[in-house]
Design goal:
about 210 residues; globular; four-stranded antiparallel sheet
Length: about 210
Amino acid sequence: TAKLIHVDQVRPAANWVVTLPGEGPRDLQWIGRDRVLASLSCGFGEYELTTGKQLRKVSGFKDIVTARRLDNGHTLLACAEPNVILVHEVDAEGRPCAEPRRIPCAGRPLRQMRVLSQGNLLLHVAADTVGEVDPAGKTVWTLRLPADIPGTKGTLAERLQDGSTFVGLGNGHRVSQYDAQWHLLHSWGEPHRGDHPEWKLDYISGFD
């Protein structure tokens, strides 16, 4: 069962838990006005931060794993089908704007997507690959994550304003930072070679 959990460390009485429909929601985004956007397997939902009340739901899609609100009020929804990632764009009313973009992925499942300032998409594909594609779906670059810990499964990539990228390595027990040329700058939490082994992180699911 998927759940959305609000934790207020200052006011525990404000905590709440709500059950989300469907399976496998992976993405959250604060969209202002006391609202959070959550990806749902059928589309997306908007929830009130103070109460957990569902304020809006857009459905009619299938196997959605990531959702991002754009500055123009539209929302991108993405899922992976055999050999292709589908990126749907819906308007402020939840209506599809055009045919979905199709991004080749060689049968590798999508984990999460981020929209970059110039309109490119930062994609975390499968367990071990981060890639960037332009608005037309053309690959800009691809990075294969280290597999020095057996079973490492990456979870999320975030681009910083200085052009570097943070990547969560799931059960690789660390967050790594890469510069714009994809040279490793730092790692936090990995017990053997990280810059901060005292963190002893068990799993990295996401960050913001």
